[in-house]
Amino acid sequence: MSELHNLCYLGERPITKENYLDKLRLLLKKGVPSTYTVEDAFAEEHGLKEAIKGSTTTPLHLICESLPKDTSREEEDIILTMIDELFLNGAGWCLTNEKDETPGCVLLRRGLHGSKYWQKMVDAGVRAELLFRRLDDDKIEFIDEIESEEIPQLVEADTIEGMDKEVAKNNAGLKEKTEVLDKDPTNTTSSYLKTKLAYKDGALVTNERCDGVMMQWEDILMKAGCNSLFKSIDDPKEVNILNIGFGMGIIDSMIQERNPTTHYICEAHPDVLQKMKEDGWMKKKNVVVLEGKWQDTVPPLLSRGIFFDGIYYDTYSEHYQDMLELFDMIVGLLKPTGTFSFFNGLGADRLICYEVYKKVVEIDLDIYGLSVKFNEIRPPENALRPAQEDDSVWKGIKRAYWKCPTYYHPEVSFA
Ligand SMILES: C[S@@+](CC[C@H](N)C(=O)[O-])C[C@H]1O[C@@H](n2cnc3c(N)ncnc32)[C@H](O)[C@@H]1O
């Protein structure tokens, strides 16, 4: 076992600065990577060329797994500083071990959700997410620009010949993965909009693969969303609401019950629009249906001088980046007293990611002078049960997109 890993098992007590922190710092200073995995060490010890793929048990995993439950205040401080030290040296908050757990997931399993250790993981996740976004920004100049030929490029198949075989194989793999993602209706809007949908068994699903687009169990979340939209009405004689994403029409039916002056609904999928026609939504006197992607249909509202008391956003196959683009419009469309809310499923298939995004969204909204308040809602029990269990809502659904015990319902306003 490597010296670094041995240290992270925290076997020797008490945990002191001399025995742990100083030794950790020394190892990192000597160049041992903070992401050195147990699998790497095993491969090295056994003269294997490569470590087992798909599993990265990092020093952070070991610390989280080994944390004694009876630490003194001093010991806790040493461990927290060890975690800081690993992060400072590039440790990853979201690498996963053989059980598909991040270090945060290990803490959660061990009953340490909400602890100081947990908070360290969340903070590191937030920093990493914000940093990666900045690095993606092409306006950033790097001091030590890497020569372009050193950067592994995704090459076209016909240029592969003659290249180093390994690079070619990796490139081909990367290209294949990109193509798979491009065709995945859960991942790409253009692919989703071409995918046939079906309304069945209290859900809206993709016809072939049975990806859950919207499900009836979410009505409790939609109720909270609808209440937020009518929270602070500016003028009861002129109530404007905008909902982006019709799905099963759950929130729109709730909005209709409140009889707003104008109820805008933005929807892009042809099958959903067809269902809306069949169910008479196009003919309702206070409803305006914006047919097409919100990216095309919402911007014109800005120039028409329409302002909203409430805006709700719940689409499908979009990414956080899309939401950031929407924020640009929200500031222009929301009345000063208005409320914006959205289906908060950001990272909701893993609690640590969900809490990282809760913070990231707060930071992003703050840039617009918007503040967010999260109300906690307990989802129905059968939404928290794995698909194998009889009464689970995920039975027959391709992938459970919800796995968190608490829903953080967002209410966003200028206040
Ligand atoms: C999860 S469902 C919305 C469910 C809805 N909140 C309800 O209460 O039933 C998402 C909807 O957003 C639509 N959608 C996805 N991308 C869109 C886009 N870019 N513009 C407008 N609608 C979009 C989908 O077709 C789908 O009907």
Automatic annotation (TrEMBL):
PROSITE patterns per UniProt: SAM_RMT2 (PS51559)
- Check the record and name the InterPro entries matching this protein: Arginine_N-MeTrfase_2 (IPR017408), RMT2/GAMT_Mtase (IPR051038), RMT2_dom (IPR026480), SAM-dependent_MTases_sf (IPR029063)
Q: What is its EC number?
A: 2.1.1.-
GO MF, one example: protein arginine N5-methyltransferase activity
Give the UniProt keywords, A-Z: Cytoplasm, Methyltransferase, Nucleus, S-adenosyl-L-methionine, Transferase
| Class of the enzyme per the UniProt entry, highest EC level | transferase
Q: Where is the RMT2 domain?
A: 183-415
Out of the domains of life, which is the source? Answer: Eukaryota
As for subcellular location, the record says: Cytoplasm; Nucleus
Kindly state one GO CC term assigned in the UniProt record: cytoplasm
Q: Which GO terms describe its biological process?
A: methylation
Give the protein's biological function. S-adenosyl-L-methionine-dependent protein-arginine N-methyltransferase that methylates the delta-nitrogen atom of arginine residues to form N5-methylarginine (type IV) in target proteins. Monomethylates ribosomal protein L12.
Q: So what family is this one in?
A: Belongs to the class I-like SAM-binding methyltransferase superfamily. RMT2 methyltransferase family.
- Note the subunit structure: Monomer.
Q: Please give the name of this protein.
A: Arginine N-methyltransferase 2
